[in-house]
Input
Amino acid sequence: MDFSTRVRQGDIRAAAKLITMVENDFQHAQKILKELHQYCGKAIVIGITGPPGSGKSTITDRLTQHIRKKGKKVGIIAIDPSSPFSGGAILGDRIRMQDLATDKDVFIRSIGTRGHLGGLSRSTQAIVKIMDAMGKDIIFIETVGVGQSEIEVIKVSDVILLVAIPGMGDDIQVIKAGIMEIGDIFVVNKADRDGADKLIMEIEMMINLNDDGKRNPSIIKTVGTENIGIAQLWREIERLIVELEENGQIYQRRRNRVRKEIFDLFQENWKEMFFQLIGEENLGKEVERVLKQEDDPYCAVEKLTEIFKKKVFQGGNNIV
Ligand SMILES: Nc1nc2c(ncn2[C@@H]2O[C@H](COP(=O)(O)OP(=O)(O)OP(=O)(O)O)[C@@H](O)[C@H]2O)c(=O)[nH]1
Ligand SMILES: [Mg+2]
Output
């Protein structure tokens, strides 16, 4: 049986192999992703972000258990900023998601933020595609909402949950302005601690300030560890998905996602083609000239671009 068929049948080993290929040899992986694309588009992608230790993995785990009872197949992508390695499950998540690990209809994958040649968002999009083709109904992407690259990643989601917790000093500071705007649902987790209601009030105030009352994201209180509020959170996610489907927002988000995917792929392929065509010798020459102060890198790029254009022209139209 060929590789892409195995992935489509939900074969975990084939999918894991393909994900490794995405990270190490994208050109090769692309051929299989191409075959898979026609089987994609059914999964709903839910992004979960928030500060370190706020309970993102716990909530992902509990939501997954909740929807497994409804027969939904689940994919989980945990983006781990601390890990330079990719491929394996990180220890923490492995422990917390232990119950899920034995469920063949839950596929968990952790990836490090570093070491992605074509960018983290390209890798994540490819993994979403693979899980989608495997037949997952819901795909969670968990990431710590710290840097720009994490925000880029989470933006590929259909729905975004922001997790906040009480008692982190100046509470509201933990939800940064940039990330505030992308949240569809606020999850106030660790509501067993003091200050949950105060945090809710602060979030409400900030929403009103930030969005001029245009948006009205809901706020759900949870105690992840006790499974409190999880069913309500899932109901809210489902309600929101219907709303976003009806008002065309999901379609708009997917349009942005496809645009970004094409942009990322193009950038990468184009770069490769450029350097292939100008050749190592021309590049090496320019490097030396810049090194000897005979030229600056800006001029070097202009010159190399001229060489590129000439070659494309000489080669007729069949190169680009
Ligand atoms: N008291 C309390 N503790 C919780 C709750 N939810 C999660 N925790 C605990 O908080 C700790 C961190 O939870 P995680 O789910 O790993 O948090 P996370 O946001 O995924 O953490 P990182 O991925 O490391 O950023 C764990 O020890 C959980 O058991 C809650 O509602 N109440
Ligand atoms: Mg986590």
Notes: The longest strand covers residues 44-50.
